TrEMBL record:
<dbReference type="Pfam" id="PF06262">
    <property type="entry name" value="Zincin_1"/>
</dbReference>
<feature type="compositionally biased region" description="Basic and acidic residues">
    <location>
        <begin position="127"/>
        <end position="139"/>
    </location>
</feature>
<dbReference type="InterPro" id="IPR038555">
    <property type="entry name" value="Zincin_1_sf"/>
</dbReference>
<protein>
    <recommendedName>
        <fullName>Metallopeptidase family protein</fullName>
    </recommendedName>
</protein>
<dbReference type="InterPro" id="IPR010428">
    <property type="entry name" value="Zincin_1"/>
</dbReference>
<feature type="region of interest" description="Disordered">
    <location>
        <begin position="127"/>
        <end position="148"/>
    </location>
</feature>
């Protein structure tokens, strides 16, 4: 899947967030990169066989004080990593799956990853996000195949 199509799925994943969530997102750039940088891998304490599907960097809404945004304030970033997501999608479907089946799995993983990272933007820690994912019935593939 090329970058352009992947970016469309990321935009679609964002649009799948509930409207009230999208209305309350503040100062966040949604990015796509092929792979996590070595710096990010190191900062996240990843082992060689681990990767990231997405990464939130910034000041969560729950921690922003009255001084937030005074002066020049760079946006928080949420980065989705294309190659790990594509690899996970291929691993998560039957080897006889069609390209459309793989695309649907990518769509699902992207939407779940977008939700996961924006949950961090709203102030949830990793444990809280995973608990909510369990309630929503998502995230099992993360525990088996990668980290977000």
């Amino acid at each position: 899947m090329d970058m352009r199509e992947f970016e469309r799925l990321v935009a679609e994943g964002y649009e799948r967030l509930p409207e009230w969530v999208r209305e309350n997102i503040r100062n966040v750039a949604l990015l796509v990169e092929d792979e996590p940088s070595e710096e990010d891998r190191e900062a996240e304490g990843l082992q060689r066989e681990e990767t990231l599907l997405g990464l939130y960097k910034g000041v969560p809404l729950s921690e922003r004080g009255s001084d937030y945004g005074v002066g020049a304030t760079l946006p928080d970033t949420i980065t989705l990593y294309r190659h790990p997501i594509l690899e996970l999608a291929h691993e998560s479907v039957d080897e006889r799956a069609s390209e459309e089946d793989v695309r649907e799995k990518v769509r699902e993983i992207v939407a779940d990853t977008v939700w996961h990272e924006f949950a961090h933007h709203f102030g949830m820690n990793e444990q809280e996000v995973r608990q909510r994912e369990g309630e929503r019935g998502i995230g099992d593939y993360r525990a088996q195949n990668g980290r977000t």
